[in-house]
Amino acid sequence: MVNKKKGIKKRIVKSIKKVVKKKSKFPKCIVKRHGVCQRYDEKKVYGAVYYTCKSAHLKDYESEEIAGKVCSAINDWIKGKKEVDSEQIFKRITKELNKHNKDVAFMYETHTDISWGVMMAAKKKVVKKKTKAKSKKEGKKPKVCEFC
Fold first, then answer.
1. 3-class SS at 147?
2. FRET partner for 114 with CA separation of 20 to 30 A, picked from 21, 100, 108, 139?
3. What are phi and psi of 59, to 5 degrees?
4. Which pTM was predicted?
């Protein structure tokens, strides 16, 4: 069982390497939900699509093929842009997945909604505690993005 999992992981890494050729012309800054900037990583797109395909019970080769096509399409769309919102990437991935498999697109779209709701419900108490602490530190300026 362990050897089988290692073989699958090796194939995933090989297919990621095929898709990930050069890191040029990609935006330096991806703006996340809370305004935090993060460097674009196409491996995250590939991995998210691949595991969504697997959760929709597609075979390995089908998952790899769809993930590769979607990742290439997102990379082509994103080239040359300085800043992209993560919500735009999410919508674009959903649109690309709809072209290949509507069930996978549905899984990708709804899983994020469910995960976000569960996470926010769990963090509700923590957020209240942090806001009290932040109100004491109001004089500080917000951080500037290190990638822009």
1. coil
2. 100
3. -75, 165
4. 0.64
